Amino acid sequence: MDYNRLNFTAQDGTIINVYKWGPQKDVPGRGIVQISHGMAEWAHRYDSFAKALNQAGYTVYANDHRGHGLTAPCIEDIGYIPNDDGFTHMVKDMYELNEFIRKDHLNLPIVLFGHSMGSFLSQRFIQLYGENIQGLILSGSNGKQGPVINLGIMLAYIEMKLKGRKHKSRLLNKLTFDSYNRPFAPNRTNFDWLSRDDRQVDLYIDDPYCGGVFTASFFYDFLKGLQLITRKRNLKAIPKDLPIFIFSGSMDPVGLFGKGVERLVDMYQSMGMTNLSYKIYPGGRHEMLNELNKEKVIEDIIVWMSSM
């Protein structure tokens, strides 16, 4: 159940790093899980989750998004995407990986799993390529953003124009990630908001591919993408019968402590989605796969996929 490293060349020539975890030969294959990871992390962090899915019969694929992990040309380039509209390029990379998976596993269902930033990319994916998957799981997500997003876009645009696309935006980092940590004061670390499990938080802090300050252009493209995914004409393109499972911790600041998740559910229900369920775990923070009750969370995910 060890992983293999693969890569593919995207249409614009960018080499995308991919991990594949496969079940042992004596485990019957039940399906494929394609993972879309969050901002300021990388796909390798999903190793434990992938191996648990392998034991249940699922093959797992996960790519490092542009500006992340081993897809970034070097560690100094983490947080920077040279292309305009990096959000759209990341979604297209997910599509190209999905096409590869579908050709390699013709008869198995594919479930897309998106966490945090990856959940928002996944929300866009189902608007463009929803027929390509048989289920969607969103972790640490949110619905329509409030008007404050316009301020973030304006600040990112100004910094980008004054200091360049590659400028590391400590201002926007402070306004976003630092704000997530305030509800957990007094803080042990800058990343207490990720999990109640101190060991997992420390592993994140010690990982050179995690927690960096991202560029003004990355923030600009990402925030613009958050606006894009809640436009009515885009929501109407989602297949109405696509099975969707959304989960979050009740203390996840990204999901507004449960309110943002309920807002996302309401948004999908208003569009006529017919196969939608969600669960909020009491006390859980942002990374439920790295929480104190992670075994229960993973069990719930596998049960949901089995019942699709």
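[next item in queue]
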Amino acid sequence: MKFEEAVNYLYSLINYEYKPGYVNFLEPFLKFLDLMGNPHKKVQNPILVVGTKGKGSTSALITAALSDYKTGLYTSPHLVDVRERITVNFKKIPKTRFSRYVEILKPNVRKRGIRTYFELLTTMAFMYFSEEKTQFNVFEAGLGGRLDATNVLDQKITVITPIDLDHTSILGDTVEKIAREKAAVIKNSNPVVTLQYNESALKVIESRCKQTDAPLIVVEKPRIFKTGEEGTEVIIDGKRIYSPLAGKFQASNMALAYHTLKVLGFDNVDFSEVKLRGRFDIKHIEGSKVIVDVAHNEISLRTFFDSYFAIFKDKPYTIFGVSRDKNIGSMIEIIRENSRSVVLTGSSVPRTIDPETLLEIARRHKLNVSGVFNSPCQALQYLLDNHINITIVVIGSFYVAGDLYKCI
């Protein structure tokens, strides 16, 4: 099977990243894994990362610090290439291996009910990491936790990033309900590391840890020593710890990653080789600064702009596109007060709201819209053609960021 065929086959499956809905049970997926030889049980030292925001950054930071070991990393969604989701020491799974796994799995997909796009990719990650004999394996949960395909793992340690309102139609309409979905991944007596962030969520996590006799380590936000375009430096345990990831919000992710590694027995932590796109990613294009960030809900937008104004003084020109299942009005309010002007866009993914429909919502919220384009690449070129030496931020969606990366 050719790589393009393998990708097309995966996209022919049920994909809840693109359409509404979600799975109702994990049992059918467990039966499918049993049919495939239970590859998830062969994965060494799995580290499971769940939460609302900061999962990708925290997972990447942990992986970077384990660079002396063969370390698998499974993340979602991807930005440009689906193989970004399955890496070993940040190197993407080869196309030949990717295709071979799809070929092996395909005949069994409709047994015991059809499996989803995400379940197959998760199975492929289990197979790849077990075959590669990776020594540590970092898994970022997809949506929620309790019913997420990654929750079949018997993880060595659980990392819970800040929890807030997101995917409320699936996970619940309160922080407590969402926290219960996330905390449900705690199913053994191994350590749990979380951040001192939301008291309501923390109480839920504490209760779950008591049920499973899991020790809980609650991490305080570290003191930021320096933040700028070149990265972030924080003080943890009296040490100056540096990461090339820009943005004040990375400080908390660094603290979570640091203390996770400390629990695992690592004292000397080095994040300098971390690789991650779409998180306050600063590009220099035609004399202007373009900052790409996958902030896709209210809390991540506030966090993004807090980091932005810690580095830059003037309000940016903003390119904004968003999925239709988000609280778009609230997101627009945040963007309005923090932007000089806004260009609206869509993406190639059906889940993204149509730009003209987004314009109608923007007008109701009195947003200063200077242009409407079907793609972020068109939106970016419009701003570059009409302005010199400006700062542009591209926010609102993984899919918008992914489409933009294809042209820059």
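[queue empty]
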